[in-house]
Amino acid sequence: MALPEGFPQITGAVLTDPDVTAAYATDRCSPVYGGVPLAVVLAETTEDVAAVATWCYVNDVVMVPRGAGTGLAGGAAAIDGCVVISLGRMTAIKEISVADQYAIAEAGVINADLDAAAREHGLMYPPDPSSFEICSIGGNVATNAGGLRCVMHGVTREYVLGLTVVLPDGRIITTGRRTVKGVTGYDLTQLLCGSEGTLGIVTEVTVKLKPAPPIPPTTVAAAYPDVVSAASAVAAVVRTGVVPALMELMDRGTLECVEDLRPFGLEEETRAMLIGQGTTPEDAAVLAREFDAAGAHYVVVSDDPAEAAELLAVRRAAFHAYEHAGNMFSEDVGVPRSKLPEMFARIEEIAAKHDVRIPTCAHAGDGNLHPTLIYPRELTEVPQAVWDAADEVFQAALDLGGTLTGEHGVGVLKARWVGDELSEDVLDLHRGIKAVWDPKNLLNPGRGF
Ligand SMILES: Cc1cc2nc3c(=O)[nH]c(=O)nc-3n(C[C@H](O)[C@H](O)[C@H](O)COP(=O)(O)OP(=O)(O)OC[C@H]3O[C@@H](n4cnc5c(N)ncnc54)[C@H](O)[C@@H]3O)c2cc1C
How far is the CA of 131 from the centre of ligand 1 (A)? Predict the structure, then answer.
């Protein structure tokens, strides 16, 4: 397919062959099938992005920003006739300041690479989505990504100090600062965190770093006869006031999916597994005590980093294992942590009622669950029973004082439910903000809210 006349010359590449651009049509959200883009731009500089945005703005062409395409809500899926603007080639880490504990990275830098670079200086970048080895920092900002360590350290937005952003009409702005404090003007940096590529295209990110812990955490793992007991253990740990370095829960359905993908010796009587880490042996002892008191079959405590990595690999494999099991409709609800046992019980009831597989893992220390509805891979439409079950899971979370999405974002997948959580007045404010940033509604339209 030929490029339209006047399309800007850029440093990066422009792809138009539909067989090639098809690879950029979707993200990792099975139910959302992307459209056919006019072109996919592999930007290499902020100026590339600005030139393409300017052209799109003048010619009324829709733009879809794209990081690494690991999103689970369809937010980076192409729209028919759009230009996909991929930041994947912008992978320079421009600065690591040891003295001031920040890093400046281009949007396409992979999360794990940023953390690894920080660790060479005795620092760390804490937010670590399970996809940390494959997702980009720009995508993390756009979705305000969470991760395993976020129970202790907080999510992406707590680390973003400043941004370089291309507006939908091609103007380049910078927001924020690199100082510890700063309150000049409205906080546009925070507004952009979690904006799902609907307000601007992030090309560069300044993030806070923290000192890397001097000793590895102590890991505690427990196996349970039922998932509700495991969830009660989480609520009990929260009540003690100890903040774990991470606390992850997997139900039987998840453990079976992982066992199918990479066998780890799942025992018959294990219906749920909880993995926690304490930064001190004392904290780990509290976790072990509470895990045990909630009715675990067994609790193991280890300060061996290799053993910890092996246990966490089981949890980090969960989404790959769900994808291996079939098409997946991944939910991302959050509930107050005291409500976790009830939420897990409701998910089990909903799965049984609709006869849908809903393996669930959770960043349990954050009250953030991923009930994942699995349906046969050969189906190109989401079955009605899956929509109905998904609807009931969302409603259950909202009934318990929770939220539709803790970290994956609304994207396309959850747009139909946003009005259940946000009032009409709040949605009006969202529409007003969008209209100021993107008056022609050309940047990722229909996503986010
Ligand atoms: C195996 C697996 C495990 C996962 N685990 C987690 C987890 O633990 N926690 C979690 O939060 N998420 C998780 N995710 C989801 C996903 O990895 C995150 O949402 C991640 O932040 C997306 O980053 P990305 O670079 O892939 O973005 P993409 O998927 O490319 O895009 C996501 C959204 O951000 C927008 N966007 C991307 N880059 C930019 C940019 N530079 N400027 C403006 N908008 C942009 C896109 O338009 C889209 O709306 C997981 C996904 C997988 C496949």
Answer: 8
